[in-house]
Write a structure and sequence with these properties.
Its EC number is 3.5.1.103. By secondary structure, the protein is of the alpha/beta class. It contains eight helices and nine strands. The protein has a single domain, classed as Rossmann fold (3-Layer(aba) Sandwich), CATH 3.40.50.10320.
Length: about 300
């Protein structure tokens, strides 16, 4: 590991495993460069789909406790030691999700009493304000306004992260939570659209059928945002083994034999593969004529 730097990165994810499917290379890279990396997880993922038959008997509470162990192993693989659950372990419950007849993700009609989706926005944001003011990150990473694919907890994590970013900077808001801190840049993690499109074509050639219920080609936008909106990509290849070790730790949620995860591995191996980001708020990246490869570029740290 290089000498400790002044760079500080905060990531806000909804459930255990989200960080390992969307941000592991980013976390590993900046840890290797001596940056402070803080992961905030908003729920225990109590309503995740259990993929291991031997664990099918788990109640939501038991699954949440099991996933605590999974994320601990995953973050051990990445090297993250500063891991916080929003409001404390178990403060907010996984809201779950359902799909409508067209496959769109929605919040269930019936929610747990302390579901993250129904959390008071100000209360939840203040839990994050305290973390922001204590860690003082220059860059925060979370989801886009749609939660990337519509999961209610991802959408709520986006709302909490964006609101907390504004509140944390206000000298008038909750001085008891610490000195004000202005985050310089908020990034929304994103699928790397062009590479996902390439990966889909390769998967089809190999006989991997991602969406057997869809006739013809997937509609535009299924693989991610307009590529013009992607402003930065953190390369995966130097950290591929770390990324896979982290994701494999989430055995209750990730089945390597599943067509989607086979496709995901194909995308990770493509030339130029990386974790893509949109600019959600704050200081733009320097205009160099190409995508930034450093989430701190132009911030002077």
């Amino acid at each position: 590991m290089s000498a400790v730097s002044d760079r500080r990165l905060l990531l806000v994810h909804a459930h255990p495993d989200d960080e390992s499917s969307q941000s592991p290379a980013t976390m590993a890279r900046y840890l290797s460069e001596g940056a402070q990396v803080t992961l905030v997880t908003c729920t225990l993922g109590e309503l995740g789909e259990i993929l291991v038959p031997d664990w099918a008997h788990f109640t939501p509470a038991e699954l949440g406790q099991h996933r605590l162990g999974e994320v601990s192993v995953a973050m051990g693989a990445v090297g993250v030691t500063d891991h916080v659950f929003l409001g404390g372990v178990g403060r907010y419950h996984d809201s779950g999700m359902v799909r409508d007849d067209e496959g769109r993700v929605l919040a269930p009609a019936s929610l747990p009493a302390n579901a993250f989706w129904s959390a008071d926005l100000l209360e939840a944001s203040d839990q994050l304000v305290e973390v922001i003011r204590d860690r003082r990150p220059q860059v925060l990473i979370t989801y886009d306004p749609h939660g990337n694919y519509g999961h209610p907890d991802h959408i709520q994590a986006h709302r909490v992260a964006m609101y907390a970013t504004l509140l944390a900077a206000s000298p008038s808001h909750r001085p008891d939570l610490g000195e004000p801190w202005q985050i310089s840049r908020v990034l929304w993690n994103s699928h790397n659209t062009e590479l996902w499109t390439q990966g889909y074509a390769i998967a089809k050639e190999r006989g991997i059928d991602l969406w057997p219920d869809i006739e013809g080609e997937p509609e535009p936008g299924r693989f991610g945002p307009d590529p013009a909106r992607i402003v930065a990509v953190v390369e995966t290849s130097p950290w591929l083994d770390v990324c896979r070790a982290a994701l494999d730790a989430h055995r209750s949620q990730v089945d390597p034999a599943d067509p989607f995860w086979q496709f995901y591995r194909i995308v990770q191996e493509l030339p130029g593969a990386g974790e893509a980001y949109q600019l959600g708020f704050g200081i733009p990246f320097p205009d160099t004529g190409s995508l930034a490869d450093d989430v701190f570029a132009g911030l002077g740290v």
